[in-house]
Amino acid sequence: MSQSIAHATLYAPVLVHGVSTNVWTPWALTRRISPRAEVRVMVREADGLLHMNQYPRLFRLGPVEPTTPWCVRLADDDQLFQLLCFDFDAKGGDDAVERAVDDCDALSTVLDDLAVPHVVCQSSSGGGRHVWVGLAGGAPAGVVAAVAHAAHATYRSLDHGMLLNVREGAARPPGAPHRDGSSSIVLRGSVATLAEPTTTTGDLERLAGVLGERVPAARPEDSRPSGPVDASHRAHRGLSRWGQAHMATVGGGENPSWTGFMCLLAAASAGWDFPDVQRAAQSAPGMEHFRTKNSGRGTRRPRSAGEAAERLARQWAKAQQYSALQRPLPVVREPADLAELQVIVSDVDDLLTRLRVSPGRWGQTEAAVSQRSILTALAYLSLQTGKRVVAASIRDLGLMVGLGRTTAADALRALQTAGYIDQVHSHDGVNATEWSLASEFSTGSRSVRSQPFNNPRPPTELFTLRAALVRRIEDQLTDQLHDLFTRKGLGHLAGRLYALLREHASLTVESAARLLGVTVRHTTVIFSRLRRSRLLVKHAGGWARARRDLRDVAARVLRLAGTLEARMEAYQCEREVWAWWLAEQSTMSSIPRERPRRPHVSSRPLFDAAASGERVWPRYPRGSDGRANHREARYYVNAGVLSPTSRWQLAIA
């Protein structure tokens, strides 16, 4: 092979015009750093091409290199890791490459701060990144797993599976060819640090500790900026304290793509419109990601106007989805009892495993699919609040997963009957029903012993696992929370399949049918609908997500755009009418002399009474027979007459 790796010599390099002339070939480097006597290689298909991204055959190390791409296993025969490879995937949409590059650079900065030698590679022409670390004397699987979990919870694009597989975890080494014809290119660092490693187990333990401190908070309001904050910057519209901090992060901080998304999430939670976001993107320090792009060489270069506008629009739509999912969360602090949180995290982890290994129970019927989504939403609320009992109305649960209120109510009744959830308290006035996951997901009586058989997780590991579970559920729910996947569109199961393609690079019809728990025929129909909407593309391993997210376009074509937003507005009106009627009942049951003077809903105020205090409701509409007229009440609410911020009132009833 003619390719070579610069700055890779084990000995003192001979420099000619600043470039080392002593170089390793990819195969020579592989022979030097491989922990085992064999590498895994790809196998050509009958047509002579490499279709599957698999390495099924062993190839013994020797002077002759393989004719197909290869990968080295990270651990030796004694189950000790000799190499670490952090794989940042560039899959999952137009922004995936930049997210992978930003995450890679952030991890590289942490390694530099800890003086851990490492090598940064561009894994292939797709733009993914590999960060390699050589270990002196090896490291046990438990230490590496702690690093892997902390890194996975911190960086969304990291695929940490190989770091958890001590037997067969493997990756293509620096310089090794890729099946698409490209190869792994060294961007930073010297591969000599892989051949003569100095990183110890103690270094990995310190790395796990630092990454554990950087794990993003489960709730946005608890998140911290990833860099220094410009105290002089002020947003042109009101923002929460955490949103203002992210918006003022100088240069987007250590991870501009993450900071930029947090800025959008804060704006969506504060009720901003897209023109407000466009205005902020022009000057807000934290939104640097939408003005410049990572060049991959440690610098940033300006984006074109079209690219910046398109990226901002895509990320804004995603931020609105996450905001809608998090809107029902109450304002609570972290639980003081970590033992209870330990049980909740274990229960949710067990529940997600049960949902994955029993797809037939949760996919055979449309009702079962809805039940799965509602159960996942309840688990998400429990995980986020740190409480076993959570208050959730059927409307909020429906909006979280993209279902109507009647479908959500049916799913709750079915789950309760089947014993998956328990109703702790029924709804009372404007207070929602309280639910909890059933005891069958609990860890059992041993969790309340003074000296439990299984030692609980340390706080850092506990919060790391919690953050990883929150992110997994959020990804699942937001992927299927779209107008296109409502019942009038492609259906809820199509949204579930679309969400699965985030976890899997590609799926065949048969494998997707097994994961969904439905027939191959039904799965073929779903694939056909997704393909017709240009959400899928043909892949060597089956079908994969299209690089561009065209769900909004497909929803507009099918005349479904705005379905979920209209549903949310309708539910808000229903809540307003209900609260108005409860206030009317309270007034009617009070002593006449204690009743407040209430104007008619159609009256015009002479001035704006902005004084704080309990809201005073106008008189409830009534018919000629004196009975409450709920239809007219709904009309006034829909017209916005009851809004405390409304500057006008109707002239006549």
UniProtKB/TrEMBL annotation:
<feature type="compositionally biased region" description="Basic residues">
    <location>
        <begin position="292"/>
        <end position="303"/>
    </location>
</feature>
<feature type="region of interest" description="Disordered">
    <location>
        <begin position="281"/>
        <end position="307"/>
    </location>
</feature>
<feature type="region of interest" description="Disordered">
    <location>
        <begin position="214"/>
        <end position="235"/>
    </location>
</feature>
<protein>
    <submittedName>
        <fullName>Uncharacterized protein</fullName>
    </submittedName>
</protein>
